[in-house]
């Protein structure tokens, strides 16, 4: 393994899902739903397969039906206008979009300011692109992980090329506020930075939280690469259909890298996702309401079991603090948890450069059936 990747080892998701299988534990680690997405969309995939749509290489930018559906969705939800021919790129999930964006936009030595904790592929992809990551730590404040705007400003140097943002935020469940996003946008404009924004949980926001795409802020449309994914919004994480929307020059740069990573992917599924994006608002509303109810079940169970529970405004994850249980090391806690309680969770420290800042935090996924969450809560209660 080369020096760029040596520090990363095996992803925590593979390690923890294997541990769940080996110990027969309830897997609240890796974030994937235990219920597949809509029947009619599965049927759409079957139809595409049967009718011979997408069984051979689809076009490099993605099938026209999906590119059109992505632009229609951005317009309908956010009032953003994109040209499906030059401003949309279909990718093999958001994971490839992140990789291709960083590989296509960074020069070796460029600095990338990223919110910490960060989704694990960010660090590895910045490294593969020869960039340097500069983490800005989100810190708990009144029940929510908050961005310190002075720290963000202080992290930008003459070598900063881009800001890598994620909202709704995995793993903390924070949704960046209008004030935070305004400050990010002002900083990007003032310092002439690109922004790559991972908005894969755009439809999973709860209560009075609102997802505000960075591309809608003043001066941002043409300097922002926005990333979406069908995995999260439609509960088809195995299909690996994601997309990028951005100005033509940025899409072109991302595509330059993407064409040598996978070239194309997920042919028939692209047609099905095009239909999914056109589902009526009632689908998105019901999905959100269902996930909010699951969040409440798990949050109540975790609170009852003695964890400090941070409020999840978005995503399908709950971050907890294990110190009220008399624990301080999330890694050790998560490695022992399957034996102690038959549950798997993720130590947030893996998402930090400043590992000590993440040490007491542990993430649980709630994209599971209510009976599974209730059983997990019962098992966790045995800890205290
Ligand atoms: N970004 C974030 C923040 C995620 O949580 C995930 C999936 N867990 C991804 C990207 C990857 O998405 P995909 O499965 O579409 O590659
Ligand atoms: N995004 C999912 C999570 O954060 C897992 C994705 C993966 O396994 N790479 O749990």
From TrEMBL:
InterPro entries: Aminotransferase_I/II_large, Kynurenine-oxoglutarate_AT, PyrdxlP-dep_Trfase, PyrdxlP-dep_Trfase_major, PyrdxlP-dep_Trfase_small
Cited SUPFAM superfamilies: PLP-dependent transferases
All residue ranges annotated as the Aminotransferase class I/classII large domain in the record: 26-380
Keyword annotations of the record: Aminotransferase, Pyridoxal phosphate, Transferase
E.C. numbers: 2.6.1.-
Example of a GO MF term: transaminase activity
Reported cofactor(s): pyridoxal 5'-phosphate
Protein name in the entry: Pyridoxal phosphate-dependent aminotransferase
